[in-house]
Amino acid sequence: MTTLIWLPLHEKQQEASERQEQLIADSLWVEQTIRFQLQRNEESLNLMASEIIAGYLTGPRLQERMTNLIRNNHEIHRIIELDANGRLITSTDETLITKNELSAPSKRADERARATRTPMYSQPSADISGPVMFDYHVPLYIGDKYTGSVVASYLASSILDDMVPWWFAQDNEIALTDINDVIIHKRASGGAGRGVYTHRRALNLAGVSLKLSTNSTKSAPKLLPSLLVDTVILLALGLAWSLTALWRDINRRLAAEMALREQIAFRTAMENSLITGLRARDLDGRVTYVNPAFSQMVGIAAEDIVGHLPPMPYWAPEAMGEYQRRFSQVVAGTVTPQGFETVFQHANGERIPVLIFESPLVDDTGKQTGWMGSILDISDRKRVEDLNRQQQEKLQASARLATMGEIASTLAHELNQPLAAISSYTAGALNILAREQPRVAEINIDMLTHALEKANAQAQRAGQIIRSVHTFVKKREPMRTAITLSELIESVAPLVELQAQKYFVAIKVDIPPTLPTILADQVLLEQVLLNLTRNAIESMQGVAPEKRVLLIAASVDPATPRNVVVAISDQGHGIPPEVAERLYSPFFSTKADGMGMGLSICRTAIEFHGGTLTHVDNPGGGTIFRFSLPALQNKLINTTMPAD
């Protein structure tokens, strides 16, 4: 009798437990579906931002890309582009053409994204026109300069209406809430939830935390009104119940298998559509999975990679040692999740620069089973970097040519002096020979030798000036060598003296012989010195002659002893505060005929060497420009590329 009473109760409890488990499983699937779609949108927006920074997407092309992204992803309500001052540049929403305003939470998210240089979501808030929205901000940076943002707005209603399957919404009331459980939007296609089977799942996004709450429309299982009737039915229809239970179990299993096949097919289609390469390895380093994007990246079929232990067929021979070191770190479990750059070898021999993110692969019990890697092909980024470097080199070469053009007249005058002296000394030597020709034995050798030595010295002086100019203006690849500051100052001294003589400026040099050696590109630093000394000399045109003194000094940085500091001091007119704010900006110049690239190129050249360029007011009047350079004995040079 006890068993007959226990059976209905147990059946009710088991059915309730199964319904709750099914609700949790379905809620997890819906949450993963929403998260994956948002991640795909993030990748698309980040790619769009990279192409805007590279200058590829502008005007109609950018408008078309934004429109296509919204057309293919209905959850995105609008996309806009803002400049560095927050003004609207491009928008898919015609209403924003005249009404350029973001909500307060969106503005705060934009400020956080700009400060951290990381894409960020805003807190949900009601738009001016009514619907609840939250924005995704992608900051745009060119180097260290902020140039604007790309902002994508999501309708909270679209998150549930477009991303949640109809069959799930038919059986459950689903709501999107904030961290304080305040309902942002609710979808109840099948009616209000009963409060019997519920589940909450956090939807953590960068900058905002949301919750996905589900409330089933199903009620709790009920016992029959009479246990006696239930007992009679169980006894009379025991066999029918067993068959029914078996049939239900079979159908449930078939439905589960069908759902599993659909989920596997969906995930397979999802992985095949990724442009990011995925690679999984077990704890021994054996490859267990690669997606089609990875196979296409290296030009090797998945079956030729899966199951392999190192060395891998896509490893480049020249970096094999670094690959082995990285693999040892993976096996030892010491790999950090931050990305690193390396190079893969395509099946056709081509080298492919890639960016790899490696993280632990954990199963549903929390146990690590291997490592998961995301691989991005950064060939386009490398090409852009090379193009920027080439443009920078062209600007530097143009600046050197412009500098030489400015001192061309002084250079001609300086060369005329040694050439005239050479002519005089050689004419004197010829006169001696002509005068003493009848008495060859009595030629004054000392006088002749003195004249020829003077002519030779003047010829060497002219040659040194010409060599300095040729070395300075010659276009070449940057090449670092070990040099001392004394050698650097000495090499550029002839050109500095030419400019100083033009304005009657005295030059003082204070370079201690004990300063450490630096590793630098001599021509780039000569260009920096020539630009800074020229600016200093020209700034002293209007001061008294006794104050026209240019000081070039160097010392060990007291704040950072492993650095040396070079200071260029003048006693000129100084730099006004309004000019100082834009002093290093490209194409900004206070000279009528200046290009505005001198100080910008100087700062780029110093930062290329790992140093900094600053300026302060000279207490005696004028300005002091300082730049720091790492000393050779403290500079760690890594000429190898990190590998996987």
From TrEMBL:
Any Pfam family: HATPase_c
Would you tell me the protein name for this molecule? histidine kinase
Kindly give the SUPFAM superfamilies that the UniProt entry links to this protein.
ATPase domain of HSP90 chaperone/DNA topoisomerase II/histidine kinase (SSF55874), Homodimeric domain of signal transducing histidine kinase (SSF47384), PYP-like sensor domain (PAS domain) (SSF55785)
Keywords of this entry: ATP-binding, Kinase, Nucleotide-binding, Phosphoprotein, Transferase, Two-component regulatory system
State one molecular function term (GO).
ATP binding
- Domain (PAS): give its ranges: 262-334
Looking up CDD domains in the UniProt record yields: HisKA, PAS, PDC1_HK_sensor
Top enzyme class: transferase
NCBIfam families according to UniProt:
sensory_box (TIGR00229)
- Locate the Histidine kinase domain: which residues? 410-633
Give the EC number(s) listed in the UniProt record.
Answer: 2.7.13.3
Q: Which reaction does it catalyse?
A: ATP + protein L-histidine = ADP + protein N-phospho-L-histidine
Q: Which domain of life is it from?
A: Bacteria
Entries under SMART domains matching the protein: HATPase_c (SM00387), HisKA (SM00388), PAC (SM00086), PAS (SM00091)
- Enumerate the spans annotated as PAC domain: 338-390
- Tell me the segments the record calls region Disordered: 103-123
Lineage, top ranks: Bacteria, Pseudomonadati, Pseudomonadota, Betaproteobacteria, Burkholderiales
Which organism encodes this protein? Herminiimonas aquatilis
